[in-house]
């Protein structure tokens, strides 16, 4: 998973372990209209040609469909741009600007889950690797 979070139109766009972006999240960010469904986009001849070109130039898989609760269609950045251009010029600009925005980094060290004291019922967060002076 990437160390950064992409947000488009107030929708967090998930990434898979290879850094591909969830096209279903982008569909939601675009308004979720049926005519802009991810399957419609991927079935277009122009999209198929772009995927073939990406496959010829990349070692990674440009489109990965995952089933299940945390599934979806994950695509490389170039296909995110192509999808956004297909939707509308306004959505395309939102996506470009979202990529251009500095994105917050993930927390630099692991955080342990909150613990609850049985006497005070207060919740505290602790880092497992905080060092003095950090």
TrEMBL record:
InterPro entries documented for this protein:
KilA/APSES_HTH (IPR018004), KilA_N (IPR017880)
- Give residue ranges for domain KilA-N: 1-102
Q: What is this protein called?
A: KilA-N domain-containing protein
Disordered: annotated segments: 106-134
Q: To which species is this protein native? A: Halomonas beimenensis
- Biased composition range(s): Low complexity: 114-134
Pfam families given for it? KilA-N
Which superkingdom is the protein from? Bacteria
């Amino acid at each position: 998973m990437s160390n950064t979070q992409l947000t488009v139109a107030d929708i967090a766009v998930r990434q898979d372990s290879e850094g591909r972006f969830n096209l279903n999240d982008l569909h939601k960010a675009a308004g979720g209209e049926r005519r802009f469904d991810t399957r419609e986009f991927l079935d277009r001849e122009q999209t198929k040609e772009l995927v073939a070109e990406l496959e010829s130039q990349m070692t990674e898989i440009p489109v990965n469909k995952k089933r299940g609760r945390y599934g979806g269609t994950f695509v490389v950045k170039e296909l995110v741009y192509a999808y956004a251009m297909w939707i509308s010029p306004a959505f395309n600009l939102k996506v470009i600007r979202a990529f251009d925005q500095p994105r917050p980094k993930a927390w630099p060290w692991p955080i342990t889950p909150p613990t609850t004291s049985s006497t005070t019922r207060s919740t505290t967060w602790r880092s497992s690797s905080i060092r003095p002076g950090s």
